[in-house]
Amino acid sequence: MRIKARRLPRRSLFRILLGVPLLLSLGACASTVPFYEKSAFSDPVMDMADQPLETHWYAKVYFSVEGSIGGIGTSGGGGCGCY
Amino acid sequence: MTARAQESSDSSGSSRPLSNEGDPGTGSLSTQLGIYHHDDDLAGNPFLDEQLTVIEPIVIWDYNVSEDFGYSLTASYDNVSAASIDRLHKFPEQSGASGDYYYGLDFAARHRVGDGEWLGWLLGGSVEYDYTSLHFGANFSDESADKNTTNAFALTGYYDTIDIIRFDGAQDEGTDTRLSLAGTYSRYAVLGPTWASDLSATLSFQSGFLETAYNAVVLEDPSFPANPNLDNQAQGIEFTEELPDTRIRAALSYTARHYLGPARAVELGGRLYGDDWGIYSVAIEPRYYMPLVDDKINLRLRYRYYKQTEADDFEDHFLGTTAADLPEDRTQDAELGAFDSHGLGARFDLSPGGRHAWYVDLNYSLRSDDLDGYFASFGYTYHF
After folding, report:
1. Is A9's CB within 8 Å of B56's CB?
2. With CB atoms 3.0 to 4.6 Å apart as the test, which of B74, B200, B242, B267 could cross-link to B287 if both were Cys?
3. What is the interface pTM, i.e. ipTM, of the complex?
């Protein structure tokens, strides 16, 4: 395997990683909602779980045309690596 | 797609394991036909015809073996028609890109390990004309007793082997490998009686052959003759694309959904991304859910704005007369360039009752570099 040295833009990465806990704090804002106030959540429209077929297809489409999608699968670089 | 879904590379790579949603012995069989197409017309990379059509049938079998164990099996096939493949026929000395087929198979299992706690693992593989890929991963999710929060962690990996076939058909470099690892933390939270949110953070690392083997860059100079292999007949000579052999990516996404009434909700999702190749991107996606026919047909409308910066090694033009005039790392891949896009989508869910569910999803994307495209999917699920 060829390995080419490359200097990482550490400052930029640092900014991104610094933002992680800030955004995580947004998700931590869950309130304690008693079950009798959650009737809305019995409606399927509030189901935020993955839809496997859609997830698969959208990921494949965006992953073939955008440089920031994918990268954890069979496309090494950006874009049309898959096709 | 929710922003979280963008961090999932495929159906079995979900950031958190699905829990059993039915009794033992129940399950579902889901099928989908996906179609994606974009034309070129000198859009994107002007030297290259990037016309592309993908047709993908996919089948997912999901089964609840017991209250504590379930599994899914995913099989997919891609039929690809691309200008890069056509070139193989016009110019036998050139590569046929990735070829015109793809087969993928994934197995994912889920185990209940405690109250509200599920552990999942997955194993899969895929084969294309010029690569094979081994796919593996594990995930864990923990739902709170009051079901107001779910925390999930996922680790996903790919090990790819690539046959290096260059734009001119050269294969003297043999094969190379690529390792991709990603870790994702996600948190679902009920924010109030009518509000829920989903947060996801992904960090991924890649090492190995990260170029697209058949990609080329064009060295241009007025002294060169017009090159008939280039889509725009430019006066230039093609050289291989060269990119770094490591890449670190980070992505954060957040989605909040608000219940408005029966089958009616509004959602806003966003995603921030950055990597050490110099690409930064932002995506914003509002959605609106509404019933068309009560308890029968629901509609989901969505808009997606996406903007990315170009990679440090991307250039529209490389000027010079010898290879020495090219930088060590270089690319003209349009997907590593700067652009923005506006996407519109409408999904119709049909639930006539009983065990059957259908949907049609139609999407169109307008890009600033004119690589506009549409994609659609048609799906059916049978619950048993």
Report:
1. no
2. B267
3. 0.86
